[in-house]
Design brief:
The structure holds two protein chains of two kinds. Chain A is an alpha/beta fold. Chain A has helices at about 20-25, 45-50, 75-85, 115-135, 155-165, 175-185, 190-195, 230-240, 260-275, and strands spanning about 10, 30-35, 55-60, 90-95, 100, 105-110, 140, 170-175, 200-205, 210-215, 215-220, 245-250. In chain A, helix 7 (about 190-195) packs parallel to helix 8 (about 230-240) and helix 8 packs parallel to helix 9. Chain A is globular, with a radius of gyration of 18 Å. In chain A, about 50% of the residues are buried. Chain B is built from twelve helices and six strands. Chain B is elongated and about 80 Å long. Helices cover about 50% and strands about 10% of the residues of chain B. In chain B, helix 10 packs antiparallel against helix 11. The chains are: A alpha/beta, B mainly alpha. Chains A and B meet through helix 2, helix 3, strand 5, strand 6 and helix 4 of A and helix 1 and helix 2 of B.
Chain lengths: ~280, ~260
């Protein structure tokens, strides 16, 4: 099973909201945290362990670098495996991207080419990840700002082959689909149609902004604003195609008050319930 | 290009800004390869600058946003993180700031960075079995003397010359009032530890500092006690009791 998350909405939990969520326990279906923020000792993993008695928890990694030609950082992987054993999360995920090469961590979800070598590399790394934690994981489609000349297949096909070869699921980030499609002049709805048959265990929603470069503009995925109307429409279309799925409101930069996140989650919940009716 | 060659070219570009080697691998269209790649380089530099701001919030206040961002950018390029857990990033940031000529007259800034990093590492240190008063109660004098101990991993000792604790406390308020802080320099040995869920920070007296220095690696209680220089049992118990209360002493793993 890709995910034991309830088919309802959750929010990304960031440090600034730890205290209030712990004290007030807002009515929300589940919580997702960035795995890397809980890999220390002491009070931080204790805090997560205390929350798991009240909420389903999703561990969403940003640093395993599944697309690295170097393979996975074994020490990092063993720390994640220990946290998974301790928290027993409802879902575990990371990204279709890379961030580590030659021992340097770049803290960005860097793009991989969509070709056979990258596919076999990431499939091998995903399988190693799944073996280390003893359960299947989901991988998230990235926001991309470029194409590699050596890519020989489209992203949906690459994702389908990755799921098929490694047995992983897909974490469908609808905002990322919109951002990438707009940036490359592709059809976001055609993208969704091409991945609708994949094992999708979770959906992400977030904001992005438009950056001007000369007289042209490009969409930047920054998780720093409300979900746009176009992304809400694409989400509704995704729900109609694939059915209701656990849905997360992600917000990382310019973090708003907890109430704003919960209100965004309410908007997603309304659409989720409508799609299931 | 193989995947390893491509990622190596990204590494060179991200660290140098020179896209000559990587650009041919990127499709150019309405945007050229350099424009597309620069989005990733901006993300890399800005996100790690933000990580440093998060790890060094008072250092940021002392330096001001513009100076901090410039220093952070140069630090990120010179010493990028080696691991994905960013609460571990910045171990050498204090040394880096200490080496900046513009900060030569403000040595307390680098001391603050070192203090802030010690706070983070103490907070995130593993929980381990600590030595308690009850454990010592039933031991004979000889057993006490040879009891294996070492400093608990959540214990950090930092030597500074500026009134770092007072400066740090003042900067927890929206508008820090520094007027009552005596900036006179003198050596101060600071203890930063996390006995349970919250951090404790205090200035150490000399015997306790010597005791903890002797117990940095595995040693025997008797050796550390002798190293403390405590002249009699009464003084020694005044050294050891607070250490036990703060859970500063751990028991080395038995084979």
């Amino acid at each position: 099973m890709m995910s034991r998350l309830p088919i309802t909405t959750g929010i990304g939990l960031r440090a600034a909201h730890h205290e209030r969520v712990s004290a007030e326990r807002p009515s929300i279906g589940w919580l997702e945290v960035h795995t890397e923020n809980f890999l220390g000792g002491g009070a931080t993993p204790d805090f997560l362990e205390s929350l798991r008695h009240h909420y389903a928890i999703s561990l969403h990694g940003v640093g395993l670098s599944l697309g690295s030609a170097d393979g996975l950082d074994e020490d990092h992987l063993s720390r994640i495996a220990a946290l998974v054993r301790r928290i027993d999360p409802a879902a575990v995920s990371d990204h279709v991207s890379w961030s580590i090469t030659g021992g340097v961590y770049f803290n960005d979800l860097l793009p991989i080419p969509y070709d056979e070598e990258a596919l076999s590399t990431i499939a091998r790394n995903v399988m190693h990840f799944q073996e280390a934690i003893g359960r299947p994981v989901m991988v998230e489609n990235p926001s991309t700002y470029l194409h590699h000349a050596q890519s020989d297949r489209a992203e949906p096909q690459f994702l389908a082959e990755l799921c098929q070869r490694s047995g992983c699921g897909l974490l469908l980030d609808v905002n990322n689909v919109f951002v990438s499609s707009e940036n490359h002049g592709d059809d976001a709805r055609a993208y969704l149609a091409a991945i609708a048959h994949l094992p999708i265990g979770e959906i992400h929603l977030s904001g992005h902004h438009l950056r001007q470069i000369g007289n042209r503009s490009i969409r930047i995925d920054d998780h720093g604003s409300p979900v746009t109307d176009q992304v809400w429409a694409l989400y509704e279309h995704a729900l109609a195609l694939i059915g209701a799925r656990p849905t997360l409101i992600e917000w990382d930069s310019a973090l708003p008050p907890l109430e704003t996140l919960l209100a965004e989650a309410g908007k997603a919940q309304m659409r989720l319930e409508r799609s299931a009716a | 290009m193989t995947l390893a060659q491509l990622q190596s070219a990204y590494r060179d570009y991200l660290l140098s800004g020179d896209s000559a080697k990587l650009a041919p691998a990127i499709v150019a269209d309405a945007f050229d390869a350099g424009e597309r790649l620069s989005i990733y380089r901006n993300n890399f530099l800005i996100s790690l600058g933000e990580a440093l701001k998060s790890n060094f919030p008072v250092t940021l206040q002392l330096l001001g946003n513009d100076f901090f961002e410039q220093a952070a950018r140069r630090f990120v390029l010179a010493q990028p993180p080696l691991r994905p857990c960013l609460f571990e990033y910045g171990a050498s940031f204090a040394d880096y700031l200490h080496g900046l000529p513009q900060l030569a007259a403000l040595p307390y800034v680098a001391e603050m960075a070192g203090f802030e990093f010690a706070r983070i590492t103490a907070y995130n240190a593993p929980i381990e079995q600590h030595l308690s008063t009850d454990m010592l109660a039933g031991l004979s004098e000889e057993q006490l003397e040879t009891l294996p101990i070492r400093r608990a991993q959540h214990t950090r000792i930092v030597t500074v010359h500026a009134p770092i604790i007072e400066l740090w406390q003042a900067h927890q308020k929206p508008e820090p009032d520094l007027s009552s802080i005596d900036m006179t320099e003198r050596p101060r040995t600071l203890l930063i530890c996390r006995p349970d869920r919250t951090l404790v920070v205090q200035e150490l007296n000399a015997p306790t500092a010597r005791f903890l220095a002797a117990a940095e690696g595995e040693t025997q209680l008797g050796h550390a006690a002798a190293a403390s220089g405590a002249e009699d049992e009464a003084v020694l118990s005044r050294v050891i009791a607070p250490m036990l209360e703060l859970r500063l002493l751990a028991m080395p793993a038995t084979p």
